[in-house]
Amino acid sequence: SPEDIEVLIHPESVVHSAVELVDGTVIAQLGVPDMGLPIQYALTYPERCPSASERLDLTRLAGLSFLRPELEKTPCLALAMDCARRGGNAPAVMSAANEAAVGAFLKGKLGYNEIYESVAWVLGRIGFIAEPSLEEIIASDGEARTLFKESYS
């Protein structure tokens, strides 16, 4: 459930994910601060393939630090957490609108500070479906992308 997810800021970008088990132990996936290996794994799952990525040298790590995000300074994170709690098609709509907004930002068509506003605007205009089918999730994603493109391009 969304309440079981904790978001932390990790400045060194070495820990890519971590799971706390029922006995309190934590299993973490560590790697060089590069998304090449996680992307490779996503594309080749469940296989583990040799990688051209640099290897993580644990002896060179000075330490690992973690911070709790300040939600008032990270409104998109706060919005994503709210969508996760709400459920339904809200996470799909938020994800699609965010991808479209970041894409527009990277192309110089949207300011950085406009990302949150545009995502929230799209989210507020797509009908909420509490228990969507797969087809409704896909349709909600497409509707969000289309609405963003029509309104912000």
Description:
The protein has helices at 36-44, 75-86, 90-106, 114-123, 134-152; strands at residues 15-20, 26-30. It is globular. Helix 2 (75-86) packs antiparallel against helix 3, helix 3 packs antiparallel against helix 4 (114-123) and helix 4 (114-123) crosses helix 5. The longest helix is centred in the C-terminal third of the chain and has 19 residues, at 134-152. It has two domains: 2-60, no CATH class; 75-152, Rna Polymerase Sigma Factor, Chain: A (Orthogonal Bundle). The mean pLDDT is 95. The two termini are 35 Å apart. Strands 1-2 form a two-stranded antiparallel sheet. The chain has 153 residues and is mainly α. Helix content is 44%, strand content 7%.
Structure at a glance:
With 153 residues, this protein is mostly helical. It is built from five helices and two strands, in the order ββααααα. Helix 3 packs antiparallel against helix 4 (114-123) and helix 4 (114-123) packs across helix 5 (134-152).
